[in-house]
Amino acid sequence: MSFPNNSTVTNASLETIPETVLPVEPGVIITEALLAIVGNLLVVLSSGWRQTFPPAGRIFVLSMACSDLLLGVSFAVSIDPAEAGRWIYADHWAKVLATAECSFHTLTAIALAGLNIDRYYVLNNDVGLSGRKSKLFMFIAWIGVLSWYTFAAVYGVPVTYNPIIARPVFDLNTFVWFTVVSFGLFAAAGIAALFCVILVLKALCSHEDAPPAQPGVFHINLGPSAPQIPPQADPNADDANARWYAKVVLLLTIGQLLLYLPYSSGLLLQEFTHVHVSPTFLFWSYWLTCLNTCFDVVVYSGLQQSFRKAVYEIAVSVICGMYNVCCRQNRVDLEQAIQTTSL
Question: Which of 62, 133, 166, 304 has its CA at a distance of 20 to 30 angstroms from the CA of residue 310?
Fold first, then answer.
């Protein structure tokens, strides 16, 4: 089976929508690019700095952060075409961005499913997925998803620049096989994540509550002192932490999936029906969907004290490092001035 090699990036949508009525707001794209890049850099650094997430969950969190970080970089590339109203770079860069767009959104959904599976195992078995299995799972996911969309871009699926959302996209009407497999990949990941959400909710609701704390009893021993017994870890505290982190994962997953709904619905109506979808709705719903690239940062910042503490330490380290560099430069300039004066 042979596929034609289409190397032309068209701006077909410009023929039907005048540039003067395009709803594109470059300021929105700039803001989301900054939030995605800075926020996910903080997630990556904090995960390695203080290991703020459980071992297996850390793999899925890092995978999501890397996907969202790379999407943020691709947003930055879309700023100049958004201002120009057309694609202004080489054709192969449009294919790279279209491949990144589909791949990283799909990988985010897969990582969400893996994160929920790990929490489900923790709640039911007190032990989550092993780090080795998590790494293998995400490695296969990254290789498989990137290979599929790279294959599609290289071997003939046309890429068109959509000026309404200011992004290069794959043409979903040219090859049925590509459309079916691509929608199947993303839908399977999303359905798996939603199914895991149901499992975690069921585990949280059916989990027995921790027994109430018993009143403390103090004993006064006037005899020879006995050897001190090291304090034991409180299993109830571990259980409470597991349940709390499961709730954080639930909020993250439900929020991410809900953000996909408006644009996905509009895209399906536009591509496969005769219903007119407003360009303004498509633009704002698309970039609302792209807010999922920084939604995880909002959830971690609001609900995880360890993440906030790690971000604070990173900020302090960066400020101190910049201060030391500036002071060293000032000392060098002062010493040079003193030497020059003495001469």
Answer: 133
